[in-house]
Design brief:
Strand order of the largest sheet: 1-2-10-5
Shape: globular
Structural class: mainly beta
Distance between the termini: 30 Å
Number of helices: 1
Largest sheet: 4 strands, antiparallel
Number of strands: 10
Order of helices and strands: EEEEEEEEEHE
Helix content: under 10%
Length: 129
C-alpha cells in the first residue's frame, strides 16, 4: 500500500447541542497520491478508523460521518493543504500544495512533511451521525 496516511483523534471531542467536533492529528509516511474529488483516490482520511480511537460513542461517527472536515493547522513545513470530500462523508481527502494552485507531485513525501507532527484536521457534524 503506497498510501500511509494515519489520523489520530487526540481524544478532543466537543459536543455542543446537536453538533460535535473531533480534532485529529495527521501523520504522513510513504508516498503522496494526487486526489480525485468525489472519489476515494488520493490521501484518504477515514475518521471512523482513527488509530487512537477507542470507539466510545462520542468519538465515533455513525453511518453518515462528519458534515465537514477542515484543516486547523498545516504544520510548520510551508506547504499549503486542503481537505476535500471523497466518495462520501466517511472518506475525506487531504490535498497538499507545493506552490500556489500547484498540487504536490505524486511520489515520496518530502522529509519535512513526514517529520511534521503539527498537522491537525477537525471534523464537525451532527451528534447522532
Amino acid at each position: 500500500m503506497a498510501n500511509q496516511l494515519t489520523i489520530n483523534d487526540l481524544n478532543a471531542v466537543r459536543q455542543e447541542q446537536r453538533e460535535k467536533t473531533i480534532t485529529y492529528a495527521v501523520a504522513l509516511s510513504g508516498n503522496y497520491t494526487q486526489f480525485v474529488r468525489g472519489q476515494n483516490v488520493g490521501e484518504v482520511m477515514q475518521p471512523n478508523q482513527a488509530a487512537s480511537q477507542q470507539y466510545l460513542p462520542d468519538q465515533f461517527w455513525g453511518q453518515v460521518g462528519p458534515r465537514v472536515m477542515y484543516l486547523l493547522n498545516t504544520g510548520s513545513t510551508g506547504y499549503s493543504m486542503s481537505v476535500v470530500p471523497g466518495a462520501d462523508n466517511l472518506h475525506w481527502l487531504l490535498v497538499i500544495f507545493s506552490g500556489v494552485a500547484v498540487q504536490l507531485n505524486a511520489g515520496a513525501y518530502p522529509a519535512g512533511l513526514t517529520a511534521d507532527l503539527d498537522i491537525k484536521v477537525e471534523g464537525r457534524g451532527r451528534v447522532m451521525d
